[in-house]
Write a structure and sequence with these properties.
The chain is mainly α. It has helices at about 1-15, 20-35, 35-50, 50-60, 65-80, 80-90, 95-130, 140-150, 160-185. The chain has 9 helices and no strands. The longest helix has about 35 residues, at about 95-130. It is elongated, with a radius of gyration of 21 Å.
């Protein structure tokens, strides 16, 4: 939610205002895209201390770039369409064009991106929790379950301890990706079958 909000605002401002605003925001986006995401998340959470709030903030402020890049392309495409040009000629301000005409037309792309980003967030949270830097006990986490199951990995009767949380993570990520594909097909009129 945090990454989607920041990325959407950056994309809207960049695509609607263009010019030097667009260049500055896209260079900042490129700079963040160059950072190794998991390494930066690991470093920041280590420095700030393991807690669920720190984890949410780190994941939110390090994943907005994908939203910004994809949605900016959509905004630039929409800005060239006739209904936006007519709104501009009619005297609508840029913020009104941004929120009244452009934003409603990028919601379907935003929903698809959000469902795909959920899978990555689950992987990052599980990885950091596995290392002891994510969600702390007593809050349950699949990463904590995997870390606890390490000691039972080579016991003949307890092989399923690490398998169950691993399968749960896999199914959740796969279902989020399938929901994203379904949303893309349902919200895109060119893909919809009668």
């Amino acid at each position: 939610l945090l990454a989607g909000t920041v990325g959407t605002l950056v994309a809207l401002v960049s695509g609607v205002f263009r010019g030097w605003v667009d260049r500055i925001l896209m260079r900042i986006t490129d700079g963040f895209l160059a950072l190794p995401y998991l390494m930066v998340a690991l470093t920041v959470v280590t420095l700030m201390g393991p807690s669920i709030i720190n984890l949410i903030m780190v994941m939110g402020f390090l994943r907005w770039m994908g939203f910004a890049r994809v949605l900016r392309g959509e905004v630039l495409r929409l800005m060239e369409m006739d209904f936006v040009r007519l709104a501009h000629v009619a005297g609508a301000s840029r913020p009104r064009i941004m929120f009244r005409h452009v934003f409603p037309n990028i919601i379907n792309t935003l929903l698809v991106l959000a469902t795909l980003e959920v899978g990555l967030a689950v992987i990052v949270e599980s990885s950091l929790s596995f290392l002891g830097l994510g969600v702390q006990r007593p809050i349950p986490s699949w990463g904590n379950m995997l870390r606890d199951a390490q000691q039972f990995l080579f016991f003949p009767g307890a092989w399923w301890f690490p398998v169950v949380p691993g399968i749960a993570i896999t199914f959740l990520i796969m279902s989020c990706n399938l929901i994203g594909d379904w949303l893309r097909d349902r919200t895109d009129p060119t893909r919809r079958q009668l």
